[in-house]
Amino acid sequence: MSIWFNEQEKIFHLQTQNSSYVFCVVEHDALEHLYYGKKIPNDNIKHISNRQIYAHHAHESRDSRVFSASTVGLEISPFNAGDIRTPSVVYDCDGKLDCNRLRYRAHKIYKGRTPLNGLPYSRENDEAESLEILLTDDEGRIEITLTYVVYASVDVIARSQKIKNVGGMSVSIQKWSSMCLDFYGADFDMVTLNGMYLYECAGLARVPLQRGVFKNESLTGTTSHNRNPFIALCAHNADEHSGETYGFNLLYSGNFAEEVSVGSLGDTRLIMGISDTGFCWSLKAGEEFVSPETVLTYSEEGLGGMSRNFHDHIRQNIIEKEFAFSPRPIVINSWEASYFTVSEDKVLALAAQAKDCGIDTVVLDDGWFRPHDQKGLGDWRTETDKFPSGIKGLSEKIHALGLKFGLWLEPEMVNEDSELYRKHPDWILSTSKTPLISRFQYVLDLTRDEVVEYVANRISEELQGAEIDYIKWDFNRYVTEAGSYQMPQGEVYHRQMLGTYKLLSALKNRLGNMLFETCSGGGGRFDLGMLFYSPQIWTSDNTDPYARVYIQYGASYAYPVSALSCHFTRGDCTTGRPSTYDFRYRVAAFGSYGYELDLSEYSAEDKAKFKQYSEQYRKDEDLNLSGDLYRLISPRTDHFCAYMKVSKDKNKAQLTFLELNATGFVESTTIKLKGLDPNKVYKNEETGAILHGATLMNVGLRIGDLYRAKREDGEVLTFYAV
Ligand code: DGJ
Q1: Contact by Cβ (8 Å): 158, 152
Q2: Could you give the dihedral angle defined by the CA atoms of residues 352, 354, 357 and 358, in that order, rounded to the nearest 10 degrees?
């Protein structure tokens, strides 16, 4: 059991393997947050509540001056209801921001969980337990349900909140976050993943909290290349391996906002959810609005422990079960091989050579229905001069070679130069007669069911009978004007996301539930919302392995390595920088591995090398799919990057060491391994050396010795318990 209710004290205690989350019902039936952190016994901890009222802090009671909504922790903080801090929800009934004080009315604890309708969520499993708290306002106009789902073994709590208009008035919501979390004290560093196109997640930022409000927000209609919805709060002394760390993320792929505010009493509040910028949702009588889900984790094992909790939760409970732990396809993708000059002959030529390289899936990227990026998107008509056998015929030929077939789609978009746009100029998101254009395309208005239907029908009709094993789902521009011909503007961004999830589900149903890889011009939509539908995401259009080290290392804070799609490429397409084959392989094998090369440019010797890489990847893929990641040296703070992957039973471990800038310090530096069993004896596959886990973790290895071959290649050492 992981959820307790102390009837007498009215305390709720949510417990995971290593953490406790505690709140209670107090005066005036308010809901007060008491604690989130390391696991504690089921004690009454109400003494921790701040029961001192300061000047200007208002209170409801006329008899006692001990309880003010402004001085205690809250589970939800409505605007205009006594709490003067940053509100987590803002709404009004019939245009009046009046009396929004919320009262606890009832609760429900049950095994399992209820899915979030139309939104991604952490899936039900054998251990999931749910708590639903019902709150109402005094006038009985609205009902609010706060939902907590506990995933005890991975130390994760999932939260979401729902509002229902039960009073028959018109309710207008201006802000509806997924959660409000208060901490007494502000001794935290905040960690965020920033970036930009070609540098996604690479700008890991860590700063001490300051008084004021910090907002991590995306307004691109996606989670964006620029800011990721992951956020962490950790103790100032927390590092990769120890120290209290709280991690948070959202299962959402659109505009989001996270506000971290430090108040005048030195308290910290974190609010996460859909961005309130431009948001306004009207709730008619009987209607309800549900927030996306947010996931929270706590670890005493620093940022590394936090990441491992998230990796486990994502693999076990967010990614579809049939893909999460299964070997991923080793693809050859046509994009960097041919870009828009792709043709059936070229794809078949790739396929003919693929087997020699240990590749099992040939992916036809953009260009199969258009000559360049300026026309045809939305119409989805195969260019039969380039693909005379059609997609069906091509897929059959690829299968006849004993390979699988994958196809690129960008279903949410339409080129201006397309039959679809000429016929339905109102089917795009826009706010003017001269809509802003980007990459010659518009975003289709997926708030309209007929548009979702059209896209699902057109694509499935075009691909009817084709043997497709893999879909790459792209999204190559931001939403810059979220106007719909049918919807109120304040609802469009979120309704567009609901439409996107609907389209994803529809196409998965129609095409068959094959592996989807999502992508948004690289890592522009790298989030848990997408991972609910696709077990892996194209990490970045930047395939220079030196740049990828930073991008992938950053992304690993929030996402399991198997979710990161990484390809061995020429390596120099984006930066012109040379790199060795071994270095390229080692970097790409960090995640789900594949190729993006014109294989005809490579010799038989090269292909034999690629085959070796593919086989090596397959041999070690178990560590990617189900192992634990230990980051040892950060590329952001050092000349090197090093990490370990360790199997759950600690019988296999692999150390990867990469040098990014040649430096003289190498010879005198040691590296201490992590995550091994101290009592097990390990044999190093490459050197034959036999040492205890305790020795490898305390004495470590000399970095100079890791360079037996060439420094520019990096090094990988594999350890097996003997
Ligand atoms: C952006 C993707 O990230 C690339 O891999 C490629 O699929 C192009 N789009 C195709 O237009």
Answers
A1: no
A2: -120
Reported as a single tens digit per residue, the pLDDT across 676-695 is: 999 999 999 999 999 999 99
Closest CA to 516 of 494, 499, 532, 492: 532
Place of tokens 């080129």: 415
Q: Which of 182, 312, 366, 541 is catalytic?
A: 541
615-618 own/partner pairs: CB under 8 Å, 24+ apart: 615/358, 616/585, 616/589, 617/330, 617/585, 617/589, 617/593, 618/327, 618/330, 618/358
3-state secondary structure 678-721: CCCEEEECCCCCEEEHHHHHHCCEEHHHHCCCCHHHCEEEEEEE
AA letter at 509: N
d(CA 79, CA 81): 6
Q: Is the dihedral of CA 284, 290, 292, 297 positive or negative?
A: positive
Mean local confidence (pLDDT), 94-99: 72
What integer best gives the mean pLDDT of the chain?
A: 96
First to last CA, the chain: 38
Strands 256-262 and 268-274: antiparallel
CA pair distance 340, 330, nearest whole angstrom: 22
Q: Specify the ligand 1 atom closest to the Cα of 538.
A: 3
Q: Is 99 left (phi over 0), alpha (psi -120 to 50) or beta?
A: left
Nearest-angstrom CA–CA distance, 234 and 208: 9
Task: Give me the phi and psi of 487, to 5 degrees please.
Answer: -110, 150
The residue written with tokens 């690993």 in the block is 556
Residue nearest to atom 6 of ligand 1 (CA): 335
User: 95 CA distance to ligand 1 centroid (A)?
Assistant: 46
Kindly list the protein residues whose Cβ atom lies closer than 6 A to any atom of ligand 1.
335, 365-366, 408, 474, 476, 519, 521-522, 538, 541
Average pLDDT over residues 266-283: 97
Interacting residues of 89 by C-beta distance below 8 A, sequence separation 6+: 76, 77, 78, 79, 161, 163, 173, 175, 176, 177
Beta strands in 550-687 (DSSP E): 564-569, 592-596, 628-633, 640-646, 652-659, 670-671, 681-684
Does residue 54 have a pLDDT over 90?
no
> Probe ligand 1: pick from 331, 334, 365, max atoms within 8 Å of CB?
365
Q: pTM of the entire structure?
A: 0.98
Whole-number pLDDT of residue 665: 65
Lowest mean pLDDT among 109-113, 485-489, 551-555: 485-489
Segment holding 489, helix H or strand E: helix 489-511
| Of 340, 347, 448, 425, the residue nearest 393 (C-alpha) | 347
pLDDT higher than 80, residue 667: no
Strand 470-473 and strand 690-692: the pairing is unpaired
Q: Whose CA is nearest to atom 9 of ligand 1?
A: 521
Q: Could you read off the pLDDT of 129-184 as tens digits, one per residue?
A: 999 999 999 989 999 999 999 999 999 999 999 999 999 899 999 999 999 999 99
Buried b (16+ CB within 10 A) or exposed e, 132-166: bbbbbbeeebbbbbbbbbbbbbbbbbbbbbbbbbb
* Among candidate residues 157, 518, 112, the one with its CA nearest the CA of residue 313: 157
Catalytic annotation present for 541: yes
Tell me what the mean pLDDT of segment 248-276 comes to. Answer: 97
Torsion sign, CA atoms 660, 665, 668, 674: negative
Report the pLDDT averaged over residues 89-106.
86
449 in catalytic set: no
Q: Measured between alpha carbons, how far is 463 from 450 in angstroms, rounded to an integer?
A: 20
Q: How far apart are CA 52 and CA 72, in angstroms?
A: 9
Whole-number Å distance, alpha carbon 541 to ligand 1 midpoint, is: 7
